[in-house]
Amino acid sequence: MATGVCMLLVVGISVCAAFNLDTSFPLLKMGERGSLFGFSVALHQDLKTESYLLLVGAPREKAEPNVPANHTGGVYTCPISANQSDCRRMKLIDPSESHVSLDMWLGVSVASQGRPGGRVLACGHRFTKLYGAFNLRQMIGRCYLRGNDLRYDENDSNWQDPEQSCSHLGDFTGEVMCGMGMSAAITQSEVIVGSPGSFEWQGDSILFYSDVFLPFQSEHLSSVTPRDRMEDAHGSVLLAVKRSDKLMIRQKLRGQQMGSYFGNALAVTDLNNDGWNDLLVGAPFYFHRQTEVGGAVYVYVNVGGRFNSEPSVVLKGPAGSAFGMAVAAAGDLNQDSFQGDPRQHGLPCFRDFWLLPFCRRGC
Prior knowledge:
Layout: E1 5-8, E2 28-31, E3 40-45, E4 52-58, E5 74-79, E6 88-89, E7 106-112, E8 120-124, E9 128-131, E10 136-139, E11 142-146, H1 172-175, E12 184-186, E13 190-194, H2 198-201, E14 205-209, E15 219-225, E16 236-243, E17 246-254, E18 265-269, E19 278-288, E20 293-300, E21 313-318, E22 326-329, E23 353-356
Antiparallel strand pairs: 1-2, 3-4, 4-5, 5-6, 7-8, 8-11, 9-10, 12-13, 13-14, 15-16, 16-17, 18-19, 19-20, 20-21, 22-23
């Protein structure tokens, strides 16, 4: 592989330094220049060998030799090793398909189910399907699900979705360009994918249920709409409770600036160790010219099961950085039993968080 794009496996950009992150000798994995290698990352465990590997999305990767396209994107599996070029590409696209995988951005989102299921999910939101006698192109997106060994499992038929959820066969204006899979997650009972083009670009979250698990009686979910209303486009995060097959919206958090893409990234964890999960929301296109700010992360501290409409803390990045494009909880890195810092009067110090800016040039 060319060494034009790299992904840091151990990196932290934070307000407070964590003492046990080895920033002098980080492990690097290399991808092809221009492939956006590292755009999405997930940690995956092989349940047989107990070993770990990384799932790495490269949504602008060139197509495999037998696929009739120039670029399709791809997903790589990388061992946790010092070798910078030992990643291997997963075979996901069927070259015999008659639909259009050209520039589908496969790898825009990747996820690992974890124990006990151990499945893997990978999506490309620009996948295009051809409909009708005139081969009308509808950019509906597509997701691939594989077993713990990264292969297709015929026994997982109850998890597969042979009929695409987004198509013009139903509501043409609502689903024809839904872009399913721009974001994706998988639990032990559900696959959840974002479809920002649904409902005339207001966005939606689609849930697929596996019939081998009973759904929880009550589960709190969040859905994001970075451009939720045409008249202001501030973005929103919707907090809902799942009851049976319905989502009941309980609260809506609004962005503060038009076009900031509030809700582009979310992370949930208990920052102040009070037993309630707190919420972090990325807004990578937030800006302020006078103070040269570019990108923001909003922190909402959970107060007894509900969030205040205004954020508890707003972290801001330098101009042009798209700070908050990705937000992830890295766990208790400094082993103080806190995801944040209890000395900050109940507010997080972000000692244990990755707040990664988007690389605009030189990648």
